[in-house]
Amino acid sequence: MRIGLDATPLLGPRSGVGRYVSELLQALPSALTPDDEITMTAFTLRGSGRLRGLTPPGVSSRSRPVPARLLQAAWSRGSFPPVGLLSGHVDVFHGTNFVLPPTGRAAGVVTVHDLAYLQLADTVSEASRRYVDLVPRSLRRAGAVCVPSRFVAEQVAEVYPPAAARIVVTPLGVDPAWARATPLPPDRLAALGLTSDYVLFIGNLEPRKDLATVVAAYRLLVARGQTDLPQLALAGPSGWGERLDVGGLPPGLVVGLGPQPEDRLRALVAGARALLYPSRYEGFGLPVLEAFACGTPLIASDLPTTREILGADTDLAASFPVGNAAALAELLVSEPDASPEARGRRRELAAAWTWSRTARATVDAYRRAAG
What we know:
With 371 residues, the chain is an alpha/beta fold. It is 38% helix and 14% strand.
């Protein structure tokens, strides 16, 4: 079986989708037979030349430089150009980021990470709003539809009933390197503007992540005269939407770190008082697993996907209602459970979520689509 895979998310700032594609490519060869082949491609004019340097062992790469917007415009209206003209001949093509190009004679698989473009349309980028037209077309082309959680599976089945029978849940995993992470020493924290007491947010600084509620919670605490507050460290690309307003907060309380290298990000998570996960909506919860692999406590908005990861271990997270700044403020000044027992339970939970499992479930989707 010759498999083509859209690796375009590897070329931009490494978002959650980019990490999904990277880890999936690393794990796929071991889930396939020696006769299977994987070719990754990128649908972009700029950056496609970098793809060769990102190719993992057991995977080849092939791309033709074509503007992504031009391709999406063509694919939203018809079935040209078929993906084989860009990736070479394949038996199955996997659209990893909501969009499955016209596949010609190849079978198609598409990953739908969430339905934020429908559920919270006011919080997504212009590119994501185009999914309103592109995703239904992709679902019609797909022989299998990968989703990261049962929550997204239920939503896709409800909104797009014809696709329900083709949905395959492929839960994400966590790299074992997270379990080996150790905190940054004080001098390296200081170089980043941080003390040893901070809560950490990871992700794009975008409206759906609801950092406005986090800032509102800090303002409530400052207004109460609270002085021993943990710093708020923000690690991730600038994203889109209005710039986060931190006016009224003491200087140095909020530290924007920008995107961080993977090894430093793991160290920052390992040393945090807690990972802060305040989102209004998520299709999975990769930062939750990564924090748990480090043993780090979690402060999270109460989302179905987080509950799905926690299962019966709900006491491992301190949760608050979505958008409730007052409830979040109380958690920010509460001492999280950082006992060895709690850290061990978090690590044990995370260890059950592996990228090998993701790859095996994805290969099942490929074989199902190929018939």
